[in-house]
Design a protein that fits this description.
This protein has about 110 residues and is mostly helical. It has 4 helices and 3 strands; from the N terminus they run H-E-H-H-E-E-H.
Amino acid sequence: MKKNIFLKNELLRILFSSSNYTLQAFTLNKRLSVAPNIFFDLIFQLEKEELLVVDGVFIKLSNLGEKKVLLDLNASKNSKNNIPKKFLSESKLKVNDLYIPKRSLL
């Protein structure tokens, strides 16, 4: 299930990075590099969710799909900037200070 969600997000991201948010099905499948049956299952699922529009050979990103990709990009940028509190230290070492590790922690 997680792999399926990852593939959906990756497919939407590839379409978002293309010109006019449109690619041919063959090109999109080559860039995603998955088996054709998995690829078409993803396309039909995303079309049911109204994130894609299939127009003959071309696959277009809908307005709803564009909004979803933008929200995912913003969420991923915010999560990368947050450092967990357990990794932050109150004491700061200056540039030329020496650090001597504790033997008990090695």
